[in-house]
Amino acid sequence: MKTSTAGINLIKQFEGCRLTAYKPVPTEKYWTIGYGHYGQDVAPNMTITQAQAEIMLGIDLVKYEQAVDHYAIFPLSQNQFDALVSFAYNCGTGNLQKLLAGRNALQVAEAMLKYNKAGGKVLNGLTKRRQTEHDLFCKDLILPRGGNPYREPTKNVRLNSKGNDARWVQYSLNCAGHYGLIIDGIAGEKTISALKDFQQKAFPNAPNEWDGICGAKTREALKQAQ
Fold first, then answer.
1. Pick the catalytic residue: 15, 65, 110, 133?
2. Active site residue 15
């Protein structure tokens, strides 16, 4: 499989293009140039043309495409392939191998968001990139229906609810509407936004139910939708 034009544009968007060699941080062993091309073939003060940057990108893509083909143990859609190539381009083939090892598609989607740190520190740019890759990966995510592994809540789940109850809601929403939520047990803004969207679809003529609170009626609708 090859990276689509949309996938290449995603990589370009986050990598940016610099035609003069640079080091993102002084401690880097090698220099970087073009669309994040990094290695011992890049020398200090080296400059390239835009056309050369495009050629370098194409060569680098082959390496990461081959890595995705090698390490993925489940069938990939084009969107999922593009998301993983972008991930590998940024995080390297070693982290790609760790991400995919022994995980199914849903588990990969959940784990992908955790690769947003450098030197143990969360970086906004990495967080945004991981979220974009995660959302692209989840566009075609086929989730298991029924058999929710989490215990059904006995009380209302609302913004900032935590633990098993939040996980049940997140898992149920993913199965019901492919919302691509990370099942982290925290009902944050994204979970509540997905819940409200589900409520609007489940109860189109009852706006009073669009409150972002998962009570008995919403739980029953979620079970029916799985």
1. 15
2. yes
